Amino acid sequence: MTVAARRIRFPRLRALLREARSLPTVALLALIAVAGVPLVIMLTPEKHVEVFGQDIGVGARVPPLSLSGPAQIVQLGNAEFDLTEIEVYGPIRPRLSIGPLTRPPDNGPLLDAQSADDPGGVDAAVRELTEGFATWYLWGAAGMVLTALLGSAAMACARLLVALRRGRTRNRPVHWDDHAGPIGRMTTIALAASLLLWGGAGVAALHGTTTGLGKVTSLSDLVGATTVSPSPVGPPVTGVTGAVIGDSRAARIGGPLVEGPDGTVAPDDAACSRSVDSTAAQLSSLRGEQVLNLACAGASVPAGLRGPQQRDGVTVPPQVGRLKQVQGLEWVAVAVGPNDLAWSDFLLYCYGLETCDDRLSDGEFDARLAEFARDTGALFADLDDLPGRPRVVVTLSYDPFPATFDPACPDMRGPAGTPGLDQAKIDLLTERNRRLNDVLADGAARFGFTTAAPNLTPLCAVSGDRMGPDLQGLDRPDPFHPTALGSLRMAASTAAALAVPREETPGSR
């Protein structure tokens, strides 16, 4: 290097160092670090990728005042959760937005791990998330450049205003040439410092993200879903061949309550509305066996079957936990679904509004159905691991409405002052019930369980044998639930499924 070159380079370097120590430049750098980075994180749009069949938005959370912290997941319309598997140092901490959840095309458990015949599924998911974050990060880098330029412009204006005020006070003219050099050096330093800050934070974020994602095998790992099976609850049970678990349809809400030998009703039986003509009682008569009734009105998979249920001031233990205490159990019948989807919400929506096929309700149904698919997968895994591997029969959800709308039927018109149902609404509810049954049937097939499809006469229709209605109408306290006859038909469908030898059931094991 020639002496002339050194004379050119070193003065410029010394000028940059002097400018880096100046008050305006120090203030600008502090402003970029304290406010610029959070602003860029907040304003940079998420990059959307598809992972485990779900649309996930990849971005970063606005960093709290700490040196490190976890990434975050936000389910739209729901709470925020820290992803403890992903710990990141620095201000850039990934944020994943998911929802509404979408059930996989094969109707499998929503958050289940990738199957053994698809070993690359997890690697592909990690790659998609990493690439999505890298894309978001590059857009953020462009935002940092823009922030540095805007901050430099604002600080340049402030410097010129101060210079003009001083010049007016001292009666000295202000020339642009005297300030162009310092402003240019300040802008150069701001740009370099912004990119270095963003680059360092990005390296730390990428390292923390890839390290954390290396532990992920399913979407369950991200959201922290648990599939821990309920523990055995209560004393051992002997002398029964089968058991029924489920909701109010299996408990047969609306019927006379079952009484003990002393004529009293046990607290659990009263709280769960278990009737003398429940599915379990009907199966006991049809098969000539002792059948344990654990079904409970209002039960869902998380609150009732896999977890405790609060019902009329009584804490009912998990039905699966009670099943684990049954010795010599040969078969289990399970009826779930409508409570998990809060089916009554959609019924009220369709009865009360002129139309109920809007995007809001459809999106809500999709989200609930996807969550139910996840919960059902966990439930079926519990049943598959029961001691002795009893046979499992999954009861599908019956459709309470006829295929053709009957305007003369009071159960179609609904309560006074409401639009009631029409053909389009019936078709919509029927389709949603079919999708619910898809989850149950496909989940049962995955585990080799048998399915039973009750053939109940819908509302406003007359059964072929003319024995009476199978369902309670709107004039009853528990509409859409089976009558005693409907409960018998449900039990008959389960008995027919149990009559088929297990080895003849498709997919059984």
TrEMBL record:
Entry keyword set: Hydrolase, Membrane, Transmembrane, Transmembrane helix
| Regions crossing the membrane | 21-43, 136-162, 183-206
Please list the GO terms describing molecular function: hydrolase activity
Does Transmembrane appear among the keywords?
yes
Task: Please indicate if the UniProt record lists Transmembrane as a keyword.
Answer: yes
Report the leader peptide range.
none
The molecule here is called GDSL-like Lipase/Acylhydrolase family protein
